[in-house]
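Priority: medium. Attachment 1 of 2:
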C-alpha cells in the first residue's frame, strides 16, 4: 500500500506491506533510526513518537494507520542547530546513561509539557510511567524534565 506521512514537517511516501509496523517504516524504510525498539510488545516506550501530537508506541501502530497524518520523531526536536530544552535538560542533568530509552522519554515529555507546563514531580513520574529506563533510577530523568519545564516557561524554544 502507498503511504504518505508528514514527518517532522517533511512529506514522506513509501510502498509498504499492510503488516509493516510504524517503527519499522521509520527505522528500516526511511532510516530515521532515532526511534528505538526496546521490546516490540508495547511495554518499554523506547519507540514513542507523536502521531498528530499524541504520544503513541510506534511498535503497536501499523504504518498504514499513519497514512495522511502528522508524525513527530526525536529527530524533529532540534531546530536550526539548537537543542530543544528537553534535550538540553537531559544533557545538563545527566538524564541518561546508555541512552536507549531517551528518544521515547523525550517524546513523551514533549507532549506532556505542552499540556502541563508547570508539573509537580508526581505529575512527571506519572507521565513517564509508560517509559522504562533500565539504567538511571529515574531521579535524573525527572530533574531533566523539570529543567526543560522551567526553561520553556521562561520562553526558551
Ligand atoms: S519497542 Fe515499542 S514499547 Fe518497547
Ligand atoms: S538510559 Fe539506559 S535505558 Fe534509560
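Attachment 2 of 2:
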Amino acid at each position: 500500500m502507498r503511504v504518505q506521512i508528514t514527518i517532522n514537517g517533511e512529506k514522506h511516501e513509501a510502498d509498504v506491506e499492510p503488516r509493516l509496523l510504524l517503527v519499522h517504516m521509520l527505522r528500516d524504510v526511511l532510516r530515521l533510526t532515532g526511534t528505538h525498539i526496546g521490546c516490540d510488545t508495547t511495554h518499554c516506550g523506547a519507540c514513542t513518537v507523536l502521531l498528530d501530537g499524541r504520544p503513541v508506541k510506534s511498535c503497536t501502530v501499523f504504518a498504514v494507520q499513519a497514512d495522511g497524518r502528522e508524525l513527530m520523531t526525536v529527530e524533529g526536536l532540534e531546530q536550526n542547530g539548537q537543542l530543544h530544552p528537553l534535550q538540553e535538560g537531559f544533557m545538563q542533568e545527566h538524564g541518561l546513561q546508555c541512552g536507549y530509552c531517551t528518544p521515547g522519554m523525550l517524546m513523551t515529555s514533549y507532549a506532556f509539557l505542552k499540556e502541563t507546563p508547570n508539573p509537580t514531580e508526581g505529575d512527571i513520574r506519572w507521565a513517564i510511567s509508560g517509559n522504562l529506563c533500565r539504567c538511571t533510577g529515574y531521579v535524573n530523568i525527572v530533574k531533566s524534565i523539570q529543567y526543560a519545564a522551567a526553561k520553556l516557561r521562561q520562553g526558551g524554544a
